Amino acid sequence: MKQAYELTVNGRSVRVETDPDTSLLHVLRNELDLKGTRFGCGVGLCGACFVQLDGNVVASCDTPMWSAEGRTVVTVEGLAPGDGLHRLQRAFVEEQAAQCGYCISGILVSAGALLDANPEPDEQDVIEALERNLCRCGVQRRVVRAVLKAASSEETA
Ligand code: FES
Ligand code: FES
To answer: pTM score > 0.90 for this model?
Structure first.
């Protein structure tokens, strides 16, 4: 049976009516039209659907709506303040750290959480922070370079 859920998504209060077991990923993409978060494996193993939930990186495909009630979600669309790019997004463009790009939203979400928690990560910190994000195109080296470049940039966003 459908129930109402209220949560904050990218700074905006939203209310959706859905079944308790509907995934947060489904709601983000299909109810809230936030298509940046991707469906990959559907079972919490690839990272394509990662979002921040109360500041923690979680698989939105594996997060039922009953557990998201009242919580704060940040998707890749909410990483940058305003309309500009987040410094991570700029560094990813500069380093060409994407091939097909399917995995990149989840990687940016993980990397954003890393920089929030650790503004000066070293290479090993980045590798560990992204270990749950799979990339079938093999751009991991460029991704690590881009995250380190973003970390060393002056801006805070
Ligand atoms: S689609 Fe959610 S972790 Fe793969
Ligand atoms: S860039 Fe294609 S899966 Fe990562």
So the answer is: yes
Tell me how crowded residue 36 is: count the other CB atoms within 10 A of its CB: 17
Strands 72-74 and 3-9: parallel
| CB of 143 closer than 8 Å to CB of 97 | yes
DSSP H helices in the chain: 24-26, 87-94, 104-117, 123-129, 140-152
Model confidence over 41-70: pLDDT tens digits?
999 999 999 999 999 999 999 999 999 999
Decide: 142 in ligand 2 pocket, CB within 6 A: no
**Ligand 2 pocket: which of 76, 92, 102, 110 to mutate (most atoms within 8 A of CB):** 102
Burial class of 49 by CB neighbour count within 10 A (0 to 12, 13 to 18, 19+): buried
